[in-house]
Each structure stands twice: as structure tokens, then as C-alpha cells.
Amino acid sequence: MNVTMLKGKLHRAKVTEANLNYVGSITIDEHLMEAAGILEYELVQVVDINNGSRFETYVIKGERGSGMVCLNGAAARLVQVGDNVIIMSYAQLSLEETANHKPKVVLLSEDNQIMELTDSITHGGQARS
Predict the structure, then answer these.
(1) Which residues sit in the known binding site for substrate?
(2) What is the per-residue DSSP string for 40-102?
(3) Catalytic residue among 58, 89, 90, 120
(4) Choice among 25, 41, 66, 129 that is catalytic
(5) Which residues are annotated as a binding site?
(6) pLDDT for the residue 129
(7) Facing residues of 90 across strands?
(8) CA distances (Å), 117 to each of 10, 29, 106, in order?
(9) pLDDT tens column, 36-93
């Protein structure tokens, strides 16, 4: 049996652009992708903290060090520039693999710079505002 587990997470990324006329996807700073273990063209779930929308799309690399988080195509209608989003990738693991699995969790600042890298998520932590 396989289970779907959180593989990587960019927490509280700020949307820097929304481009309705692009073919589709989400463009993410390559440095942030690497920190979270997210691959180019990988399926991700995006959750908008400001309006509650949840959707899936695929990732394309943005300029390294730019802090870019740009929603493209139809997804651009679901966010506003300045919204905070959580971007999550998942992996299918066997039950045996789950015993040692730890996700890559990246906590971001207001300008999409890495504040903390961790492999654990605890309930009850205070969210930054």
C-alpha cells in the first residue's frame, strides 16, 4: 500500500505577480524550489491564506534569488498580488518509507526570503501576521 505524504512546503509565500495571459502554472524562485525539494513541472497544491481558495497547478522555475511567486493563466484569477499562499508538494510512499520520511518545510519572510528550514510541523504554533 502507498500513502500520499507531504514532501515539501513553502509556508506563507507572498504572491508577487499574477499573469492571466500566460499559458498556465506557478512560477517560483528556483532557490525556494530547491529549499522545499520542489521540481520543475511538479504538481503542487496552492492554498491562498487570504481568500481560502485551494487549487493545483504545476511549477516552472523563476529567476534564482528573485523571490518570485507568480500565478499564471487561470490560477491568476484565484489570487491577488500580495496574498500569502502555502505551496505544497506530495509524494507517494510505501508504508515502510513513511517511517523515516520528513518533509522539507520552508518558512518565508514577507519578502519571500528563507527564514527557517525545518522538517517538522507542530500544531498550535503561532502564525506570523
Answers:
(1) 57, 73-75
(2) TT-EEEEEETTT--EEEEEEEEE-TTS--EEEEGGGGGG--TT-EEEEEEEEEEEHHHHTT--
(3) 58
(4) 25
(5) 57, 73-75
(6) 37
(7) 6
(8) 10, 16, 5
(9) 999 999 999 999 999 999 999 999 999 999 999 999 999 999 999 999 999 999 999 9
Q: For residue 124, what pLDDT is reported?
A: 63
Active-site residue 120, yes or no?
Answer: no
pTM, two decimals, is 0.93
Q: Supply angle C-alpha 122, 26, 6, rounded to 5.
A: 30
Query: Which residue matches cell numbers 521540481?
Result: 39
117 Cβ neighbours under 8 A, 6+ residues apart: 35, 104, 105, 106, 107
- Name every residue whose Cβ is closer than 8 Å to that of residue 59 and which is 6 or more positions away in sequence: 25, 26, 27, 28, 33, 38, 39, 40, 41, 42, 44
Give the largest CA-CA distance in the chain.
44
